[in-house]
Amino acid sequence: MHTDLWPSMPDTRLTRRSALGLFISSASVITLAACQASAPTQSSATPPPAAPTTPVAAVGSTPDTGRPKQGGTLRIGIPNDIPNLDPNYSSPYGFDTVWQIYDRLTQYDDQLQPQPRLAESWEVSSDYKQVKLNLRKGLTFHNGKPFTSDDVKWTIMRVRDPGVGGGAGLTPQSNWWTGIDTPDKNTIVLKSDQPRPAMFDFFEYLNIGDQQTLEPQGAQAKTSTNGLGPFSLQEWAQGDHIGMVKNQSYWHSGLPYLDGITFSVLKDVQGMTAQLEAGAQDLVLNTTTQDFVRLKGNPSYVAGTNPISGQYYCVGFNTGNHPFDNKLVRQAINYAINRQRFTETVLQGIQQPKSLVWAPASQAYDEARVNYFGFDLDKARSLLAQAGVSNLSMELIVSNAYPGHPEFAQILQSDLQTIGVTLSINQTDAAGMLAALNAKPPTYKGMYVFSSGRSQLYPGTTLSVTAPFAPASNIEGFSDPAYSQLVEQINAEADATKRKQELKQVNDLLLDQAFTSAISSADNNWVSTNHVHGIVNTAHIGLDYSGVWLG
């Protein structure tokens, strides 16, 4: 997320991943959106276990058939370039590119449990107010500088500057820690005056930087790199390609297998897929739904999605405008949304319909209410009657820059017409869409359809800082003291039993108030040739290439 809009993409045609990232970064300017993840589930009477001392892989996404081979350069096609090389800046394709240069203290696995990276183990207090991180010994940055606890402390302090860490949601999380102690070069102790059950979310997104490289701030931080990741930067030809080479001193023995990676900036998404089929690329990120489905059935390719990225399609209402200040009207429109049709036709079965945003690994996920708002036009008509609303004319704001959104609008327009509701579709460009959502109060007239993310992570922060949900500054203009108090409780709840009950209450409230609701998942996709092995999904949207090999 970003407190400031990043520079415009090189072209006006955004892919779904670009669109999602842009919304997450731009619409969340109003909320200092942080990235939160599933906290440990032990009760407050039982301290969370320390991490294992050996690295554990995240989500394996391509079959590791045969014996991994060393060498080769992986060629990856991406639809848009990155804005800069700052490790603490968040951008749609930065997760796949810049993040290969840097590393973090921990990383979530597919169950959103923290696994070791730069921290080989840790000790969390039973009240979640303190964590002691034991760092790996003998590590060096790409330039040979030793890695110590001072680098971690400096990075945590660096992102307290909203101009540095605000855009990635790191500033408020850094401010959690009222005490940062470094008793020795391999140990750091963080202390908070409140329970921080989502502490590992902060570590998931905190790339550790080198002070000498990143200071002074400004141009140097945006154009220079010095990290601890599996690859180091070879060159960045803006608008054309990003070249990386293997880090020979990477902490994970034997990795990476690749000699390097070349990311080619290919602005034409269909042309990008054509290059894959012609053998000019080994992997492409976020191709069209049609090409994804077509290549998924071809044994020469491997097509996958990232189920722990937490992305989703959503709708919301300007609750400051009549009649959308009435929850019965909002509920009625939700029952008129044919989520199943949208996912089966527009998304061709790749995504799953749902009413609540939570990904299956989230603590707030409730299987019984995933599809709470089933398609029911009679129910919608009845609710409108209860609200005393007839002959309703309403507007839906949508941008054709975001794939699938205009098609959704047309489906909804047709279904609403059958119950006497006239829906006008206000199509705008991406900038106009974001301006209408971000305005205080929002300036769109009726409802929006958009995409957001981070729903796989710790529910309290998803609710407190992302644009659709933030109690004090959401893009629906929704305000409710009971909601604000409940979100605050969830964020500081160390007891798993109490937290479970609070999450049930917040789901009840979200479904009842219906100021924003999910339509379906929107997992990112990728397609590779079948000689690419070892791709790993991550909870921070991008892919991990440290264990990829060609054969």
How does this model look, in words?
The chain is an alpha+beta fold. It has a domain at 312-521: Dipeptide-binding Protein, domain 3. The chain is 27% helix and 20% strand. A seven-stranded mixed β-sheet has the order 9-10-11-2-12-19-13, with helices on one face. A five-stranded mixed β-sheet has the order 16-15-17-14-18. α10 (327-335) runs antiparallel to α12 (377-386), α15 (459-465) packs across α16 and α16 runs antiparallel to α17 (496-513). The radius of gyration is 23 Å and the shape is globular.
Summarize the structure.
This protein is of the alpha+beta class and 551 residues long. 27% of the residues lie in helices and 20% in strands.
List keywords for this structure.
Dipeptide-binding Protein, domain 3, 551 residues, 17 helices, 23 strands, disordered N terminus, alpha+beta, 27% helix, seven-stranded mixed sheet, five-stranded mixed sheet
